[in-house]
Amino acid sequence: MGVASALLFVLSFQTYAQEDAILLKRAEQLHRDMFSIDTHNDAIVKYTHPWRPDAGEHTQVTFSKMKEGGLDAALFAVFLSQGPRNQHAYDSVMAYTVKEIDFFKSYVAERSSEAGIAYRSSDFQRHKSQGKSIVMFALENGYGIGTDILNLERLYNLGVRAITLTHNYNNDVGDSSRDTIAEWHGLSPFGYKVVEEMNRLGMIVDVSHTSTETLYDCLEHSRAPIMASHSSVRAIKDIARNLTDDEIVAITSKGGLIQVATGRWCLSDLPREQVDISVFCDHVDHVRNLVGADHVGIGTDFDGGGGMVGFEDVSKMKYITVELLRRGWPEEDIRKFWGENFLRVLREVERISRQINH
Length: 358
Ligand SMILES: [Zn+2]
Fold this sequence. Notes:
The protein has helices spanning about 5-35, 45-50, 65-70, 85-110, 120-130, 150-160, 190-200, 210-220, 245-255, 265, 275-290, 320-325, 330-355, and strands at about 35-40, 75-80, 115, 135-140, 160-165, 205, 225-230, 255-260, 295-300. The termini are far apart. About 45% of the residues are buried. It contains 13 helices and nine strands. The chain is of the alpha/beta class. The structure holds zinc ion (ZN).
């Protein structure tokens, strides 16, 4: 490199860094003003099982990291790995869920100046105005419902407001995208009742991980909008776990949400070190171009496989806003992406629940 080109390199690098600093300032201001939520993490287990090697300081989600990243709230899911499908297993998985949620509630209660739990849409603004990190409970895997419809009210009473109906295997609610056979060809007869009961109680039906047939059955049967809490775009990365354009259009034409996941494996075939925030934002832009800014958000899947280069934990959330600003997103759309869309859907789910119950 000659002196002149070296100088040019240094100058352009400086301009880039200056531009970055300006964008970061704008992003930080936005995060102070707007409401932001990540609709999926699996962090709870790291707190309830602190001896795990990936717990403690390695946890991707902590309240102080949320503050640093400018993230107000998250759906904290109790993840249920699937075991046998019999009554004994269902009893013990329900007992496990109760224990996990109770433990995390005490953890939050011991830090009541730092964090709070949201049980309804109106709780978010109250906690944000007090500067608290906000927890809303979710359940990942309808396996936890077993075959007892009354478990849904038990889960609701614990604070669970969204349920991912399946994980990687079919269960008694419906079929998964990753199982090798179609057992029910969508929702099971019990699964239809589950969707109805979730509508009645005011819980969000989450179709991440479900098979296409299950997804369409939910859409057809649910009176309220549904959500894919952590799913990326199949047109960019072709795996069964990601959503096709048809699925994205179907979910959103009924008012629902596509919350893009951040794990490298669901974003790109590129080597690990090349999968960064820009690759993630390509998925987000794809959804926005297809169905508009009213239906896209983020479900990081942190502590469950989420994260990429430059986005190692929840303290990096604001850098997504930097990238969206760099891509020319208006602030209005950024606010929708981070929280307004989710609040709209949750309020609608609550409204339909009140309508059913009166
Ligand atoms: Zn998942």
